[in-house]
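Reading a protein record of the kind used here takes only a little practice. To see the layout at work, look at the sequence and tokens printed below.
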Amino acid sequence: MHMKLGVVYYELLNPSESITGDSIPNTVDEIEPNSEGKTPSTLLQIQQIILLDDNARPHVTVPVKNYLMKVLDWEVLPHPPYSPDIAPSGYLLFQSMAHALSEPWFTPYEDTKN
């Protein structure tokens, strides 16, 4: 998880460990306020958390998506499928451009230049 100020939270796994759909809610709970109401000071400045998803299997399971979006009220920004080289902002831009360009029809080449 990143902010303009830098990394908010990270966790190192042992070489034999891996991330599963069941372990993600436990990890996310470390970021959210704990039962005593203590929150890392950097998170107190955040009004909304937007998580960039990377399409890894554990991240896209239905229980994980429901937990992040419905329980924690986080926005999950999907990573563009099959396009790791396109930034998410570019993906959203191209998606809106595709909609705008779906209406006009250009027949001769000269019409496309204007």
